[in-house]
Amino acid sequence: MTETTVAARRVRRAPRIGETERKNAAAALQRALDRRDNGGETGH
After folding, report:
1. Which of 4, 7, 8, 19 would suit a FRET pair with 35, their CA atoms being 20 to 30 Å apart?
2. What is the phi/psi pair of residue 22, to 5°?
3. Backbone region of residue 39 per phi and psi (left: phi > 0; alpha: psi in -120 to 50; beta: other values)
4. pTM score > 0.70 for this model?
5. pLDDT (tens digit, 9 = 90+) per residue, 8-32?
6. ∠ at Cα 13 (9, 10), nearest 5°?
């Protein structure tokens, strides 16, 4: 019974990401993937 009580008291410490931050992160990830797919500046 103590295990469920402890689990119920756990609070998520990370703040929730706003929609703007989520979109910026998704755009940055997409740019990084595009650079990798295109070979970046080296053109490999």
Report:
1. 19
2. -65, -45
3. left
4. no
5. 666 767 777 799 999 999 999 999 9
6. 15
Three-point CA angle 20, 26, 27, nearest 5°: 90
The amino acid that residue 41 corresponds to is E
Could you give the CA distance from residue 34 to residue 27 in angstroms, rounded to a whole number?
10
Encoded amino acid at 4, one letter: T
| Token pair listed for 11 | 């609070």
Count of positions (residues) in the chain: 44
